[in-house]
Design a protein that fits this description.
single chain, Rossmann fold, 39% helix, 2 domains, alpha/beta, seven-stranded parallel sheet, 440 residues
């Protein structure tokens, strides 16, 4: 199987999406897929990108883009957030990426093209490729539901930009041969709210977890980690909507009641100022420790060493996001306390496969879960370690790199077969150009 992946965020870039795509590409490569990647990089880092381009085992090309200068114009900021790709910089970038994608198709004949958001406007490359290669299957991957401003409260934002964003995403879903996403809730929501049927064209592919180096539970690293024993650990950015007074009060009460078994909440990563203010207002400085930002490798090792990992989602009736940190938690085998909506993908996984406790943002529920995880039934969550020293849980399986690679490959094979049946053409339909387009 030959796959062309077009994404804007990929190492050298940093951040969750860049790291996630690097894990996916590496997993596909190790699963025997011939992967070509076209990614973006800031223009002033292009020389660094050239040095790194051939350092991996897969094919990687970078297309430089300009970083827009800060603007005080409300209209300019609104247009940028709309993601309509009408600015000259975005249009020029799309044109360059599309040109390179077409050359890659000519030279390597991929079986399928996968465009990846964030950002959403990058899916325009799929439209451009489809014009010239109508027989080549195009799949669009969405990491998050779009448009975000149309989601139910607390995400909903009343804005005229919602109309334009909906129009953009509606065109993408109608034009693509398939839509991929990390969970069914967001695909259901996008179908219903954008009015586009994805019957026979939708595929769920979970995030790929980061498998950390072997590390004993509760360990303190020689590099200077804080002592993780008896702490509830949260890794990654923690925003104000994710932390409720009920969550913090539960942490405080259990830490006071069982000081030998539970110390409080440790936050590794960026923490919103509003969260810090809430901690201080509840007089919880001794029960909440903020470590700050660490490297992805250190964060992964701390996840693997934690007694219990915390996933805190925004209170809502339905959760439409599968957080990538949930995949990281799952593959490292430590118990998870998930403070999440009643309906969401993380709860589905935990109820089906075990590996943790799912509760809502209710103080009494959270307190009972903390007591079960740290005090009453701690032995229940001490899963037997495998040969590497990592606890073996069923929850890990869907998010392991080899499992995610198989899921992608199965989706690609079905997408290619469906396209062949629809076109009723030769085994290599992607080499057929649309009428009126000269062969270069």
């Amino acid at each position: 199987m030959r796959v062309l992946i077009v994404c804007r965020l990929f190492p050298l870039m940093t951040g969750t999406r860049a790291l996630q795509m690097s894990k996916v590409v590496q997993a596909l490569h190790e699963h025997g897929v011939d992967v070509h990647v076209i990614s973006g990089v800031e223009k002033d880092r292009m020389s660094e990108a050239e040095r790194c381009r051939n350092s991996g085992h897969y094919h990687l090309e970078y297309v430089p883009y300009l970083t827009p200068s800060p603007t005080s114009s409300l209209l300019a900021r609104a247009a940028s957030r709309a993601g309509l790709a009408k600015s000259s910089m975005k249009s020029q970038y799309i044109a360059k990426v599309a040109e390179l994608a077409k050359k890659t198709i000519e030279n390597h004949s991929p079986d399928v093209v996968l465009t990846v958001s964030t950002p959403v406007f990058l899916h325009r490359v799929g439209h451009e490729v489809k014009k010239e290669f109508p027989g080549l299957p195009w799949a669009a991957f969405y990491s998050d539901p779009r448009p975000l401003g149309m989601l139910p409260k607390p995400f909903r934002r009343r804005s005229p930009l919602n109309y334009f964003q909906a129009r953009l995403n509606r065109g993408i879903l109608r034009g693509a041969d398939a839509a991929l996403a990390p969970n069914k809730y967001m695909l259901d929501w996008m179908e219903e709210n954008l009015g586009v049927s994805l019957a026979g064209r939708r595929y769920v592919v979970p995030h790929c977890g980061y498998v950390a180096a072997d590390c004993e539970s509760g360990a303190t690293a020689a590099s200077g980690w804080p002592d993780l024993r008896n702490w509830l650990l949260h890794v990654g950015s923690l925003w104000k909507g994710q932390v409720s007074p009920d969550l913090l009060k539960a942490v405080k009460n259990v830490a006071r009641k069982y000081p030998d078994d539970f110390k409080g909440l440790m936050c590794v990563g960026k923490v919103a100022r509003e969260v810090g203010r809430l901690v201080r207002s509840l007089e919880m400085d001794r029960y909440v420790k903020m470590v700050g930002v660490v490297s992805p490798e250190e964060a992964g090792s701390m996840v693997a060493a934690a007694d219990v990992n915390l996933l805190a989602d925004t209170p809502a009736r339905v959760g439409y996001f599968l957080h990538s940190k949930f995949a990281d938690y799952a593959v490292n085998g430590r118990p998870i306390l998930a403070v999440i909506p009643r309906q969401c993908p993380m709860r589905d996984y935990l109820e089906l496969l075990g590996g943790g406790i799912a509760v809502m943002h209710r103080q009494a529920e959270i307190e009972r879960a903390l007591e079960e995880l740290f005090v009453d039934k701690k032995d229940r969550w001490a899963a037997e370690p495998d040969a590497s020293g990592r606890a073996d849980t069923e929850l890990a399986e869907p998010f392991l790199p080899e499992s995610v690679a198989r899921t992608y490959l199965e989706a690609f094979e079905r997408i290619v077969e469906t396209k062949r049946q629809q076109s009723n053409s030769a085994p290599s339909p992607h080499l057929l150009r649309s009428p009126g387009v000269p062969r270069l």
